[in-house]
Design brief:
The chain is an alpha/beta fold and 196 residues long. The chain contains nine helices and five strands; from the N terminus they run βαβααβαβαβαααα. β3, α4 and β4 form a beta-alpha-beta unit.
Length: 196
């Protein structure tokens, strides 16, 4: 586990940044006492998507817990209503809500907790975080995303990561854009070709 310069706030907070930057790993290491709700797990996702009120029941069942981590909050944005209610109840429990994109939540027009949770980001590694393990040539070739840096084959992992990221984050985001013009097609985006 590399030392990260990230400092967690005292209260509840959102933690956003692209996938594989180490958000979940860091939280599991530094918030061992927290209840973890991993929405990337299919079974957990189904349970909470079907009934978001289960989050209130989960917190009520263990009143001694001081922190709840909801990993992948953009997958079930309706959970934010339950989080808001729990924060307002001032039960001494703080929430850490992670995701790869805040845009998905904004687009869903859900309760973003109106200042009750700080907004934080976790970036890829910094050279000082890696200390003696930092290799400038490798950093320039494959970057500093933890998943790639720690991989046995960084180039292959970078290729797979880039393909997944482009498909999941960029292409899927593009499909959901709505244009004000009646000429825009909802099925595809067409860009004019430059002519010389």
């Amino acid at each position: 586990m590399e030392t990260r310069f990230f400092q967690k706030p005292q209260g509840s907070f959102f933690l956003f940044w692209p996938r594989a930057t180490g958000k979940s790993t860091w939280l599991r290491h530094h918030l061992k006492e927290a209840v973890f709700v991993d929405l990337l797990d299919p079974e957990t996702y189904r349970r909470f998507a079907a009934r978001p009120a289960r989050l209130r029941e989960l917190v009520a069942s263990d009143p001694g817990k001081k922190a709840v981590v909801v990993d992948g909050i953009p997958r079930v944005p309706e959970l934010l209503d339950a989080v808001h209610q729990l924060i307002e109840a001032r039960q001494g429990c703080r929430f850490v809500l992670t995701g790869s994109s805040a845009r998905k939540l904004k687009r869903a027009r859900v309760d973003l907790l109106a200042g009750r949770a700080a907004l934080k980001t976790m970036h890829p590694f910094l050279a000082d975080e890696l200390r003696k393990g930092f290799d400038m040539d490798q950093a320039l070739q494959v970057g500093l995303v933890p998943l790639v840096v720690d991989a046995p084959s960084p180039r292959e992992t970078l290729g797979a990561y880039a393909a997944m990221y482009l498909r999941e984050e960029v292409q899927m985001e593009g499909r959901s854009v709505t244009w004000g013009s009646s000429r825009a097609s909802s099925r595809s985006l067409a860009f004019p070709t430059a002519r010389c």
